């Protein structure tokens, strides 16, 4: 019983529940609002923020879990966005790794760079499995707009991500 | 701390391996992956519906702020277009009806005989790397994977995923989209004309006398009467043709070379913002030069997922290629894929896909 309560109250359970809400916002609000014809990617934002806050390992793990959940609603093969988001989370963690005490603007730059790379990883993964036609110059425009959108929303994402992934002492 | 990192590393490796295995299984259309998606969908859909209701005011406010002028301009454009097309629609409807009656008379399949489900678009693709829309009808309404989807203008895509109460439509512009089509080309006007003495020389088509032995100076005025056969839902009418002014009873037969020539190819999407292309067009002399503006319709056939003669678009550019390779055609779609609302799914399955009980 204690073990079950520990699992339920763990940050990973919290992560899955928060990701369900983030994903539902992605498929509704953020699919509808398309600045310059590009959908902002808040699932990607959540992953890169996790990477920039908690490092490479947590970033990769968050990306893999978020991607696997996102794959379930995408028309592309299951596992594809899991790998690309896992890589994006790891990239964000890696960018911040070399700074001892990163400032807020360093994190912001890391989020922007990881967002650009994360958005490019997906069409690359599509090409690897034979889904051609997406790896074109348009990807650069898409990645830049996604990065700008992510930079704007990142303060809110940092708050949510901190709340979700912080380790708390169990009351039990 | 070290134990935690080791567990995390193991979890990462496990998830990466799972992802690779799932990609492999899904690319082979494994049913286990489909069930996994369905289970996840059952959990996720209520959350998504709640989000949609909660975020609708934000979405409406966004569109109100950023799209207001665009909507006004579009309204003006559409009003003008409606005025232009009102007359043409009546003529077109009559032609379509005539064509359908002719097809029915000859026992050929028509679109009128195919059941359809009207549906509404409820969501766009959440990613920037898939050209899909989600609709609010699924397998409960008889929709199956592969069925063609139309809007009022023409074909817009096909069903690629079906759930109980919703489906995913892959748009024509998606790079994974491919469908066999027909190009209806109008050959160059014939240079030879047949003229019979005494007939109206201004008539462009050749005139074939009904009775070759009949003399041209015959004083008898003849009248030809045509009566149509009875078809369900169609009132028979009698058409009386006036007597030929020259006294020669005649019928007009167009030259075979004046009839529209059809050639098949495959339409392929090229991503958002780029026009789809048609490939594998035969470079034959009979087909002639393809002109810009000629219509593109679905080819149909026992293996095609779509019935014949659904309008897709028109040729906007012809890219000639060297050697015997046929040209590549760029297609301007009749349907506006950026503004989809109500769609029609044709409950059509080719004979090869139908499961016999």
Distance between the termini of chain B: 62 Å
| Average pLDDT for all residues of chain A | 90
Helix and strand composition category of chain B = alpha+beta
Order of helices and strands of chain B: HHHEEEEEEEEEEEEEEEE
Cα-atom radius of gyration of chain B:
28 Å
Give the name of the CATH architecture of chain A.
Orthogonal Bundle
Structure write-up:
The complex is a heterodimer of chains A (172) and B (357). Chain A has 172 residues and is mainly alpha-helical. Chain A has one domain: Arp2/3 complex 21 kDa subunit ARPC3 (Orthogonal Bundle), CATH 1.10.1760. Chain A is 74% helix and 0% strand. Chain A has 8 helices and no strands. Chain A is globular, with a radius of gyration of 16 Å. The termini of chain A are close together. The mean pLDDT of chain A is 90. Chain B is of the alpha+beta class. Among the domains of chain B are: 70 residues, no CATH class; 173 residues, Rod shape-determining protein MreC, domain 1 (Thrombin, subunit H), CATH 2.40.10.340. In chain B, the strands form 4 sheets. Chain B has a 6-stranded antiparallel beta barrel with strand order 1-2-5-4-3-16. In chain B, strands 6-11-12-15-14-13 form a 6-stranded antiparallel β-barrel. The longest helix of chain B is centred in the N-terminal third of the chain and has 38 residues. Chain B is globular. Chain B starts with a helix and ends in an 11-residue tail after the last strand. About 17% of the residues of chain B have low confidence. Classes of the chains: A mainly alpha (172), B alpha+beta (357). At the A-B interface, helix 2, helix 3, helix 5, helix 6 and helix 7 of A face helix 1 and helix 2 of B.
């Amino acid at each position: 019983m204690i073990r079950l309560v520990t699992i339920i109250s763990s940050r990973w359970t919290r992560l899955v529940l928060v990701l369900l809400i983030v994903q539902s916002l992605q498929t509704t609000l953020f699919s509808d609002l398309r600045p310059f014809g590009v959908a902002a990617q808040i699932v990607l934002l959540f992953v890169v923020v996790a990477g920039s806050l908690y490092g490479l390992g947590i970033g990769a793990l968050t990306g893999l879990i978020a991607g696997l959940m996102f794959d379930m609603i995408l028309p592309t093969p299951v596992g594809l966005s899991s790998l690309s988001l896992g890589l994006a989370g790891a990239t964000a963690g890696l960018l911040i790794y070399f700074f001892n005490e990163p400032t807020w603007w360093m994190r912001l730059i890391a989020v922007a760079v990881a967002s650009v790379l994360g958005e490019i990883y997906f069409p690359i993964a599509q090409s690897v499995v034979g889904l051609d036609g997406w790896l074109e110059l348009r990807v650069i425009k898409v990645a830049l707009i996604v990065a700008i959108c992510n930079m704007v929303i990142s303060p809110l994402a940092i708050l949510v991500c901190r709340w979700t992934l912080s380790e708390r002492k169990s009351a039990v | 701390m070290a134990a935690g990192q080791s567990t995390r590393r193991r979890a990462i490796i496990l998830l990466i391996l799972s992802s690779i295995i799932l990609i492999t299984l899904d690319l082979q259309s494994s049913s286990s992956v489909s069930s996994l998606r369905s289970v996840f969908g059952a959990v996720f859909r209520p959350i998504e519906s709640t989000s949609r209701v909660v975020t609708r005011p934000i979405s409406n406010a966004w569109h109100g702020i950023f799209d207001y002028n665009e909507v006004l301009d579009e309204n003006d454009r559409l009003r003008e277009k409606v005025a232009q097309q009102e007359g043409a629609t009546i003529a077109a409807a009559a032609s379509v009806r005539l064509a359908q009656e002719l097809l029915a008379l000859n026992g050929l399949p028509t679109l009128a005989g195919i059941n359809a489900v009207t549906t509404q678009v409820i969501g766009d693709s959440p990613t920037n790397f898939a050209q899909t829309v989600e609709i609010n009808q699924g397998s409960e309404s008889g929709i199956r994977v592969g069925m063609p989807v139309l809007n009022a203008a023409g074909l817009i895509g096909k069903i690629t995923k079906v759930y109980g109460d919703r489906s995913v439509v892959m748009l024509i512009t998606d790079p994974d989209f491919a469908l066999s089509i027909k190009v209806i080309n109008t050959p160059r006007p014939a240079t030879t004309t047949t003229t019979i003495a005494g007939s109206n020389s201004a008539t462009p088509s050749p005139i074939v006398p009904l009775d070759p032995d009949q003399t041209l100076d015959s004083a008898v005025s003849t009248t030809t009467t045509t009566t149509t056969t009875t078809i369900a839902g169609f009132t028979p009418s009698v058409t009386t043709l006036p007597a030929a002014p020259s006294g020669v009873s005649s019928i007009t037969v167009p030259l075979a070379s004046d009839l529209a020539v059809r050639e098949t190819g495959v339409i392929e999407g090229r991503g958002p913002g780029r026009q789809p292309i048609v490939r594998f067009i035969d470079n034959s002399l009979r087909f002639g030069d393809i002109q810009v503006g000629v219509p593109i319709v679905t080819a149909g056939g026992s293996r095609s997922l779509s019935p014949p003669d659904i309008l897709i678009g028109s040729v906007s550019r012809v890219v000639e290629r060297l050697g015997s390779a046929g040209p590549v055609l760029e297609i301007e779609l009749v349907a506006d894929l950026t503004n989809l609302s109500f769609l029609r799914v044709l409950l059509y399955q080719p004979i090869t896909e139908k499961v016999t009980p």
